[in-house]
Every structure is written in structure tokens, then in C-alpha cells.
Amino acid sequence: MKAKVHVTLKRGVLDPQGKAIEHALGTLGFTGVDDVRVGKVIEVELQETDAAAARKSVEEMCRKLLANTVIEDYAIELTA
Amino acid sequence: MKAKVHVTLKRGVLDPQGKAIEHALGTLGFTGVDDVRVGKVIEVELQETDAAAARKSVEEMCRKLLANTVIEDYAIELTA
To answer: Can you list the domains of chain A with their CATH numbers?
Structure first.
């Protein structure tokens, strides 16, 4: 079973990496870019075959390691 | 119009960040993790309202700045 964990900064949290990209795009001549935000995708390959158990395990991974829940949100997507 | 750009390392390219996460998960007691890979998601908010023009522009952004096409693949997802 494969889990895709999307980790994004919460709304309102400053994203310097995004701002740097936005600025660089402007420098390269791209106009009409209003905002850029950067997030992470962590793909975890699990031996677990039960979707409910896999989700529970990945939830715990997110809380303990993958996301900083003070400033980040996470979303889990499971595929067979 | 909003574009989500998924940037992932190509198959076969070593992912040290993923390996570090895999190791840390093991240390935390998570068993049954076969592989971990880490990618980026860049969300770009565009003024452009035409989907075809937006895709063309974002493709160019990917080639010029957002992805290193030697070692990374990118996928573009557009939403209104």
C-alpha cells in the first residue's frame, strides 16, 4: 500500500521559499503571478495492506515526524 | 487560475531526504516501511484565466525555474 502525504504551510504562515520563487519568476519576466506557496509530498511505501490500519499508522507518522502541526497541515491519500 | 506543480525526483535518482525519513521512522518504531520519497508541490496563483495559456506559461516556469529536468519530473494540475 502506498501513502501520499501532502504537507502544506497553514494559511497565514509566512512562506519565504514561495516568496523567493515569486520574486525569481518576476525576474525571469513572468508577469501576472499573484502568489506562490511551496509544500511537500512524502510518498511512503507500506507493507500494510489494510487501508484503515495504513491510514492510522500514517496519521501517527505525520503527527510524530512528517509534519510540524503548529505551522503545517497535512492530508493523506492512500493508493493500493 | 491556480496551478499546482508536482516536482518529483526521477526513478533511480537517489533521494537522501527520503532515506533520512525512512531511517527516522524506523528509529521511532514504525515497522513495515519499504521506501520513502520526497517531492515538492508548488502552488502558483495566476492572473491568467485561459487554461491553455496558463498551462503554457507554467510549463515554461517549470523548465526555467521550478524543476531541474535533469533529475526531476514535473506534473501540472490546473484549477479555476
So the answer is: 2-79 (3.30.1280.10)
